[in-house]
Amino acid sequence: VNEIDLTFWGRRFRVVKSPPEVLSDDLNSDSTVRMETPISSDVSEPPSESSPKLPKDRIEVFSPMPGTFYRSPGPDKDPFVKEGDQVAKGDTLCIIEAMKIMNEIEVESNGVIQSVLVKEGAAVEYDQPLFILSSSS
After folding, report:
1. By C-alpha distance, which of 137, 76, 62 is closest to 106?
2. How far apart are CA 72 and CA 59, in angstroms?
3. Region Disordered: what ranges (predicted)?
4. Does residue 127 have a pLDDT over 90?
5. For 69-97, what is each residue's pLDDT tens digit?
6. How far apart are the first and last CA of the chain?
7. Taking a C-beta distance cutoff of 8 angstroms, is the pair 96, 126 a contact?
8. pTM for the complete prediction?
């Protein structure tokens, strides 16, 4: 539709669409845009954003969601775990509060807590390391 006529309460309105503006003289040109990217002979692995390589007997526990990290079930309560504690599969390690919901984070394998990587009340991101465990065989 390029044109429309309306009559409303005894008044006539006419709207006309102008043709599109042509920016090129040659509409059928086969112009090619070439972008060149230099190729480097140095092939290196992309930088890793994860923590440094851990020994084989160490296991990292990652945050399954963004939120606020809590080591204990309440302000005046003892932490769920501390460094040196033996943990079994299914034990609660911490709580992550997300959208006003307290989510208990459980350990997925047996081990000993080697270090707690996050401070009480700190904001954590998805897939952020929270704990380092040594596996117990």
Report:
1. 62
2. 21
3. 20-58
4. yes
5. 999 999 899 999 999 999 999 999 999 99
6. 76
7. no
8. 0.59
